[in-house]
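Appendix C reproduces, verbatim, an entry submitted by the partner laboratory led by Prof. M.T., so that reviewers can inspect both the input and the predicted structure.
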Amino acid sequence: MRQIDFFDQGVALAPDAPCLSDDALTLGFADVQARTNRIANRLRRKGIEAAAVLSPNGVAGFLAILGIFRSEAVSVALNARAAHKDNLAHIAFGQSQLLFYHSSLEAEAAALQRDAASLVEFVCLDRTGTLGIALDDWLGETPARAPALLPDDPLRVYRITLTGGTTGSPKGVAHAHLQAEVNTAAYLAALRYDQPPRYLVAAPMTHAAGLVGFHALALGGSMHFLARPDAGLVLQALHDHRITTVVLPPTLLYALLAHPRLRDFDYSALRYVLVGTAPVSADKIREAIAAFGPVLGQIYGQSECPMISYLSPADVAAAASDPTREARLLSCGRPLPLTVMGVMDDAGNLLGDGEAGEIVVRSNQRMRGYLGNEQASADCSQFGWHHTSDIGYRDRDGFYYIVDRKRDLIISGGFNVYPSEVEQVIWSHPAVQDCAVIGVPDDRWGEAVKAVIQLKPGQQVDAEEIVTICKARVGSIKAPKTVEFWPDLPRSAVGKVLKREIRDRFWSAQSRKI
């Protein structure tokens, strides 16, 4: 099945039911199907093979994504909060010819028009823009009938996402229809309902939060979009829309728990509050259960293999209420159907229970590979398994635990931060001799970006200046939250900075180094 086929299942179940909504617009299933048919037909007639979307969370942007899926062009959905250079790289991997953009992001769209060589056409989603005509005008008299199906090919790439490596260089991840089918099937197997679900998209719709919504659509359920992840708006939406399911990064969950109006709303419709992208502290899990009920679950995955394991609300609640099973709150769960997990040493040997090694996976959810990077694709596919670069172990009951990270990647607030990218900016300052950027424990962000800097003799600079230049060059997400100045950085015999030694100073009191 294609990703769009799951949506069409929902149309067959409930053509007149609410499907997509935001604060300005609500559309039913049949209306959404007709609109996406028109977008797909127009893309086909123009010969568009890859199209990008730049939009905040909302019905207009998601319609464009669905239309691209239906056309069978390659979808390149850009993160509205990403840095310009990352958007450029993303478009380059997809060789996108057309950009659907929201007028609130017209400045970035104009920068992409200037710098992205493959883009030749621009369509504004919500009005006539300075770069291109409005979507309705672009569609014109395009018919609303479904486009002809292409020959079935489960390995056809339908979507490209952006990730990176320890070098900080972005990598394009190619996703095929088979991956979408297995991923959505995993959610349908794990999450059960006695009524059509109502799913809230509070995190970026271009990432996991958007894809998880397809399980709700397949059941005739609805998706409600929040333009920004404001804690008060999330709590209000859970109440007003009788939300059953939401996916949250830990940072947003923590913001909800700290909100002064947390106890003012009715959450009785909630069935699943799924937390992913980074580990959650045990104390916050207990707080969440007290606030929302026994509905908190944890999902573990990555761009290359989105749904690896699942710690169900029942497992979480049982561990939270039983002191003898408290450690299980730190688990990332057990593998879902259609996924096999293991723990492997560097020689390719699978390890036994309690032995720490790299978590590896076999599943048709895994990516088709990194675009244009055969070496990286081969590195993460050794011995016939997908390698996650996460270090962990399995207990005797089959639950997995992540305890460290094989690479230097920092996950702050659910976003990947690659230290060398930030280090390059800091090194450019004339007063800096050397630096190391690491992730340190943080109650809000999970990991916070910290810069440890060695200055040149006789030089002075304050932390605020370092943070300011980083924000300007790589954006606020990747900029250090804190800066320390050390007289010397620890080094190996050949002069290499021992980043792990620096990191260990901040993580020594933690049970997990992640």
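The radius of gyration is 23 Å. Additional entries are available on request from the coordinating office.
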